[in-house]
Amino acid sequence: DRKRFIKAGLDEAANTTACTKSTATFKLILKKAQADSLITEFEGLELDREAEVTHTSHSRFIKDMWAHINANTARIDRLEIAVDNLNDNVQGLHTAVNRIRNAMIHRRKVENSMFFMNVVFSVLAMGAISNNVTKFMSQVVDFG
């Protein structure tokens, strides 16, 4: 029962050693537990490694690294949102340019149609006027 209690306490301590002094104290207790045969050498090595990992993961260097990683991740997320918005804007511009192009083509077709209609009406009008002008001129001027 005592061994189980010591082992459980050492397991918990291995996962909570965050500062140098607590790690050193833990290692002393670990050596004492091994010397008293409360834990095996293998269990001692496992607990020592767990304490080192916990201690390292709580170091200032690792915390700074995580802060930079999180800041970079946030910046990347904002950049991805900006790129998505830019992509949406480009697609909107593409649609607008296509509508303008189609409208210009339609306008050109309408202008061409109107031009040919004006030509036809002008020719018809000239024909009708020409006939009347010829009659009028033959009445006014004697050609013969």
Quick tags:
144 residues, mainly alpha, 4 helices, 88% helix, rod-shaped
How would you describe this structure to a colleague?
The chain has 144 residues and is mainly α. Helix content is 88%, strand content 0%. It has helices at 2-14, 20-35, 41-57, 60-140.
Percentage of helical residues?
over 70%
Percentage of residues in DSSP E strands: under 5%
Looking at the structure, what is the overall shape?
A: rod-shaped
Structural class comes to mainly alpha
Instruction: Extract low-pLDDT stretches.
Output: none
Topology as H/E string?
HHHH
Largest sheet: none
- Indicate the radius of gyration in whole angstroms: 47 Å
Q: Please tally the β strands and state the result.
A: 0
Distance between the termini: 148 Å
> What is the typical, i.e. mean, pLDDT?
86
Q: In DSSP terms, counting alpha (H) and pi (I) runs of 4 or more, how many helices?
A: 4
Write the topology of this structure.
Elements: H1 2-14, H2 20-35, H3 41-57, H4 60-140
Helix pairs in contact: 1-2, 1-3, 2-3
Summarize the structure.
This protein has 144 residues and is mostly helical. It has helices at residues 2-14, 20-35, 41-57, 60-140. Helix 1 packs antiparallel against helix 2, helix 1 (2-14) packs parallel to helix 3 and helix 2 (20-35) packs antiparallel against helix 3 (41-57).
